[in-house]
Amino acid sequence: MTPGMSLIKHYLQFKDLRAEEYAYLFDRTRIIKTRFKNYEKYTPLVDRTLAMIFEKASTRTRVSFEAGMYQMGGSVVHLTTGDSHLGRAEPIEDSARVISRMVDLVMIRTYEQTKIEAFAANSRVPVINGLTNEYHPCQILADIFTYIEHRGSIAGKVVAWVGDGNNMANTWLQAADILGFTLHVSTPTGYEIDARVAGVTNTSCVKVFKNPLDACRGAHLVTTDVWTSMGFEAENAERLKAFADWCVDREMMSVAQTDALFMHCLPAHRGEEVEAEVIDGPQSVVWDEAENRMHAQKALMEFLLLGRIG
Ligand code: CP
Ligand code: NVA
Questions:
Q1: In what helix (H) or strand (E) does residue 263 lie, and over which residues does it extend?
Q2: Residue 114: helix, strand or coil by DSSP?
Q3: How far is the CA of 77 from the centre of ligand 1 (A)?
Q4: Can you give the pTM of this predicted structure?
């Protein structure tokens, strides 16, 4: 490892930042979003380059990082497994050593968390997790900003997670621990959250429910995700059966708080994990959530490259 490399700030999981750093980031996100909406030029990252490495498909992550970096005056390099040596068995450590000598920041979407950690350990520049099997921190960053925009602080609130104990669920659990809210979780048997995988030792912020309707009772936010995440496609038929009762429907929303929000990181499958009437209904904020990926990640990139502004 290059001397001093351990001092680099990476964003590999939600718990890599503290509550007061999140408060700062949410504030910067609001400012950056307002400037963007007012067509005010803001280019603090001129001459900076972001490498984006995708080993899995993406629409939102790709567009939000790429558009965000250009808007801030920087540029991007887009790499996939298929069109780089990452798919031809060049060690991840060597890829990190090479790529991080040429760019200022790296975003990676890959499979195992250990892979992004190996990259970060050998990178001269900050690395951002754009989704792994275990975590999706940029999504929860945007989701919580979206909650704050609509309803104010999330501290003390109840978030209901209905569905798979996956990367999104693990990241919500880390966020609950750091930001002081309660996570109600309901998953089918065999798909539970594992606190060790989630990397959370304080489990007092999570309550587990067998019945998804009970998890939604009194919730300020109800959220879900696809039944089959990327990389698990071989289990699709089995999962369709196991998750049949974990579709967020109007009944579940009716037992939540009357002003409860509905979120989904997207892409969504109407009629599977969510009823069309819910995702396309008045409590859904999924389009704001998607848009806020860009604003929140612009604040994150600014923070990782320039530190605190002002
Ligand atoms: N929510 C999300 O990360 O979307 P993409 O897979 O399209 O990037
Ligand atoms: N859990 C999903 C999220 C997609 C954005 C997946 O990993 O495929």
A1: strand 261-264
A2: helix
A3: 18
A4: 0.97
- Tens digit of pLDDT for each residue in 143-161? 999 999 999 999 999 999 9
Q: 167-179 vs 137-151: helix axis angle to the nearest 10?
A: 50
Q: What is the pLDDT of residues 32-58, one digit of tens each?
A: 999 999 999 999 999 999 999 999 999
Strand order across the 206-208 sheet: 206-208, 182-186, 158-162, 221-224, 261-264
Q: Residue type for 32, please?
A: I
Q: Which tokens go with 299?
A: 């604040």
Q: Ligand 2 test: best mutation among 54, 172, 230, 273, most atoms within 8 Å of CB?
A: 230
- The CA 54 to ligand 2 mean position distance, Å, reads 13
Cβ–Cβ < 8 Å for 55, 109: yes
Instruction: Determine the 3-state secondary structure of 127 from DSSP.
Output: strand
Print the SS3 string covering 27-60. Answer: HHHHHHHHHHHCCCCCCCCCCCEEEEEECCCCCH
Whether pLDDT at 176 is above 70: yes
CB 231 within 8 A of CB 133: yes
User: Which of 52, 109, 131, 166 for mutating ligand 1's site (highest number of atoms within 8 Å of CB)?
Assistant: 131
Q: In ligand 1, which atom is closest to the CA atom of 266? A: 1
In the numeric block, the tokens 């900003």 are attached to: 145
